[in-house]
Amino acid sequence: MSVYVTVGSTGFDRLIQTVSGKAFLQALSSQGFRRLVVQYGTSAHKFEPPATWSDTHGISIESFDYTSRPSQLIEQADLIISHAGTGSILEALHSGTPIIIVVNRELMDDHQSEIAHELASSGYVAVAEPATLVDAIARNVYMGLVPYPAADPRPIGEIIDEETL
């Protein structure tokens, strides 16, 4: 099983530091995950995975700053761990893959927390912070999430018809 971690077009040092740590890798391994793909953006300096196979707990790790194929990586993942950027969240939700949104409380207005908790209140996502992510994995918070409804394109077409006719 595979996990895809994304920070989008910026960086998120605390998240990247957490996902490259031994405790996180052990939690993934205990849940049956064997592959970790990390898109770290501008947080490369915080990505320091263990050097030995035994310290990775058997997890194969791939990492990069940015990718031109995020949709492909999302489709290949069994779990997505994402910053709370709206674009990343929506892409993950539309894929049907379970998602844990990790909130960056260091941002000025804490708007990410509002978005994440609203989606969590409907059961579409699980929410964590860097300090609680290992526990969230260990507790399987991503299991049993409600599928995000598919978009219905008809309403926008009806609005366009009304405005143009």
Describe the strand arrangement of the main beta sheet, using strand numbers: 3-2-1-4-5-6
**In percent terms, what proportion of residues is strand?**
15-25%
Q: Tell me the distance between the termini.
A: 51 Å
What low-confidence regions span 5 or more consecutive residues with pLDDT below 50?
A: none
Task: Round the Cα radius of gyration to an integer and report it.
Answer: 17 Å
Largest sheet: 6 strands, parallel
Mean pLDDT: 89
Number of strands: 6
Helix and strand sequence: EHHEEHEHEHEHH
- Give the fraction of residues assigned to helices: 25-40%
Number of helices: 7
Class derived from helix and strand content: alpha/beta
Which of globular, elongated, flat, extended, rod-shaped describes the shape?
elongated
What does this 3D model show about the protein?
The chain is α/β, with parallel strands linked by helices and 165 residues long. It is 37% helix and 16% strand. It contains seven helices and six strands, in the order βααββαβαβαβαα. It has helices at 13-19, 22-30, 70-76, 86-95, 111-121, 133-138, 154-164, and strands at residues 2-6, 35-39, 60-64, 79-83, 99-102, 126-128. A six-stranded parallel sheet has the order 3-2-1-4-5-6, with helices on both faces. The N and C termini lie far apart (51 Å). The mean pLDDT is 89.
